[in-house]
Amino acid sequence: MRIIRVLSLFLLMLAGLHFSNPGPQQFSHYLSNYVAQELNPGSDDVIAKGLGKIAGAVGGELATRHDLFVASIYQIDVLGKRHTFLAVVGQFIPLGKPEAIK
Questions:
Q1: Model confidence at 45: pLDDT above 80
Q2: Taking the complete model, does pTM exceed 0.85, yes or no?
Q3: Which of 7, 20, 52, 81 could form a disulfide with 36 if both were Cys (CB 3.0 to 4.6 A apart)?
Q4: DSSP string over 21-84
Q5: Distance of alpha carbon 12 from its chain centroid, rounded?
């Protein structure tokens, strides 16, 4: 009986992760904020926000998404560097520093 409870809880957790896996539209929004912060950290600069919105709109379309059912990995190439992000539970986590494209 205990194994059924554990298995049910595990399946419920997998379903929760699957349904909270962020999609491309959420990545575009995240990328917009990420670029604005990278351009001018801690500021409310209008130019940085504008460039962030442009990057989010364009970058969301150019990014490659690897759907892993419970999470996703997004990769985008910018200025000769590949940026990689892990998307899980509605959050985006940059994975390491951008690496040069060979």
A1: no
A2: no
A3: 52
A4: ---HHHHHHHHHHHHHHHHSTT---HHHHHHHHHHHHHHHHH-EEEE-SS-EEEEEEETTEEEE
A5: 23
